[in-house]
Amino acid sequence: MPSTTLRRPRATEPRRGLAPFGQPTRRGLLAGGLGAAALLGLTACGSDSSASSGPSGPSGGDAWSFTDDRGRTVRLPHRPKRIAFLTDTVGAALWATGLRPVAATDSGQGIVSAVKPDWSGVTKIYSADKGVRLEALAQARPDLLIDAVQPDGTLQVASELSQVTKIAPVVGLSTYASIEEIAGTADRLTRSLGVRLTDADAKSRYQQASTRLKKAIAANPDLRVGFVFGIDKNTIGVMNPKTWSVLKTARALGMDLVPVPGGADNTYSQAVSWENVPSIPADLLVWAVADPLPDNSVWKRTPAVRAGQLWKPELASWYAYNWENFTVLLDGLATHVRSARAGVGPHAAA
Fold first, then answer.
1. What is the rounded distance in angstroms from the CA atom of residue 252 to the CA atom of residue 66?
2. 106 CA to centre of own chain
3. The pLDDT value given to residue 220
4. pLDDT class of 261 with cuts at 50, 70, 90
5. CB–CB of 167/146 below 8 Å?
6. pTM (2 d.p.)
7. CB 23 within 8 A of CB 349
8. Which pLDDT does position 62 carry in this prediction?
9. In angstroms, rounded to a whole number, what is the distance separating the alpha carbons of residues 150 and 35?
10. Do the Cβ atoms of 6 and 39 come closer than 8 Å?
11. Are residues 231 and 11 in contact, defined by beta-carbon separation less than 8 angstroms?
């Protein structure tokens, strides 16, 4: 049974014999070995049936429809009133907009608590040993479920638990689009459900932070930034700019990001053996989606680390998909981009 618990990423490729950075081999690419599936303890194994329906519970109003981030349209005879959040990431996005569920997941990783939700009267449907508890979900009588969409287009929970779609129809919210798309879809969904948005001011602050980051990048255009995380004691991963929401937005603002050669849109990262970490062509390193920071001699002699050009945001911030949290991330990036010196890191191999 799937769960939404964050856990240390595990590499799925052999560790030895990785080519130096800039000369990756197929063995050096994690083709989906990390992502939401590995980080949140879920894997995708198919697609859902969005049009299926189950007990709808009390609802009212006119007919309702919504086209989700997979391009699928859910149509119901009445606007749904009893909503359930199936993942922490969806919950963090939608609690923040003002949408109040009858049931929701909180795996205890700080993602949901970051938005300070009011849990009174809300059924918690997650347990550490079982993941999403179908019985508790069904007893909450939701008439709409909201699930996270992974890079390959599958749903995070419903694709693994086919029984979910028998309880209520499922709407998918992508967690690997750009920041604007993720938070924008959350706002659009909330409005469609007749709920007044409570994050309008947060969106305005986010837009200001985006402008600050864009100016910082323009003032330091030669700075190369790498987003990395720990896989295991032998390997770290370089995050793919084509996959992760923050990286997509940063790249659109002009940031020069360390690429994942050959990485498709659904490739989460490139695995790099520790002996090759100092050759990552980055002047500024951002440590992401893993704890703790490394404490070994190879890491300490990596040029960006040695120069003090390293930033580690809070772990949960990578999955709290809302305007307020993204504002903190962009402001942090702007601060470090402004203070970093270009040319510190090595050049990529030809």
1. 28
2. 15
3. 98
4. confident
5. no
6. 0.81
7. yes
8. 85
9. 8
10. yes
11. yes
